[in-house]
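Support request, please re-run this one:
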Amino acid sequence: METVLVFQHVDTYASRLRLEGLNAFAKEAGWTIQTYDSTVTPEEFKGIMEFWSPLGVMLCPNDGASEFDASNCDPGNTVLLDCFAPNGLERFASVITDSYEVSELAARELLGAKCASYGFVPWPVTKTWSENRRQNFSRILSKRGLKVSEFKPSKEGLDISDFQRELMPWLKSLPKPCGILAANDRVGAGVINVCRLANFMVPFDCAVVGVDDYSEVCEGCNPALSSVALDFRRSGFRAGEMLDGLVRGRLDDRPLESIPPLGFVRRNSSRVFLRTDSHALRASEFIRAKALGPLHPHDVLALFPCSRRLAEIRFREATGRSIGDEIRAVRIAHAKKLLENPYQRLDAVAAECGYESDTTFRRVFKEETGCTLRDWQRHIRT
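Re-run finished. Output below.
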């Protein structure tokens, strides 16, 4: 079997999904994937190449920084994956995330909230992907005559406490309600935590959007963080296709391909409530946390300090949906998330989404989407 070497750290959400996508293509191509997730010196790299004599190399050089040095690689059999660096790397075939589309989806969501001001919070250390998102977000809003305020920490690499300590006065300075795009979900989670410390109600005083759709981070926020979902699996799969074309002589140039995001995942951090109601927000968060289990509407009604009838009215007036509809919406959204994985077993989706009956779930899913589970799973990958 032909061997492909992959140099990337695998301790992040994005890198794991990229590797899933690449592995999917490798199975089709009959490749063996050998991963190196620690820094290698030029001498070590040379020894690795001599030992394996690989068909090709996949490199994630982290903004062109020192972790993995592309200068040691042959453009004839190397593909760069999610690398935004200059310095001669244009000689290589590359697959990157479409930063403009990411910013466009985020801007569209925050514009819908009709905020009085808009801001961007970068990654604590300067990264090209973060700067690209800031520039595109500012460009998109400037076309509508709106200005984006950028949070600028006092120095590079602040620890989380100092970063958030400096973030608080900046957030307080923005006219409310404000709309914030965070560089990614981890930054967005920090913004929500600072808002809570500053006694700002999210999303009423401050709407927050992240990037990546890292579910464990997004759902761990209170309220849950809205995010632009990136198609990391597709990036990995497409990088495999590109490498195959490169080594088989089917690519005449060194293409740069941008992978568009999967879409926008709206959670409560940017949701437009029809009226400010902290109990309705709390109830909506409770549904997000419990909907994938045996949740019943009367469990949610108990959270309101009023009669069940009035609680149902307040929830509908604030959200535009009944409690039962809200539960169903969360379950269907989770089903769609599961179906992004091409290896997801269809007979297991119902139980993972809180449905006791597979038949009932499939009926509800088709009513909501117009598709069967299998058709949706095929559609999301095309």
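The chain has 15 helices and twelve strands. The longest helix spans residues 13-29.
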